[in-house]
């Protein structure tokens, strides 16, 4: 049976909860406050460094994308539970899709892409992404 993107992202979110507990003894409860713990997990996973995508092997890049989908799934589920939203995919080209979260029918973003950016660019955080989404909703 083929899963839809919402089911897949919920499964990734549950994987993130287990991952955070097993490897970093962090309890993720889908609250807004848990996003600070998510940033701590990301920082620990990066070991204080950022990854340079140009220096990654294909296997390392794939591992980073799996991690990004897992943590991004969790961040998206926090957004859905606290602000409202729906997952969907958007076709980028003939071979690639991107995972998008429409937040409260007003704002779009890609939590997995945002997590990937947190891993590859300094000073990015999931808390900032969440706060920006909240601020965007209050503007509409």
TrEMBL record:
Domain of life from the UniProt record: Bacteria
Name of this protein: DUF3806 domain-containing protein
Source organism per UniProt: Desulfatibacillum aliphaticivorans
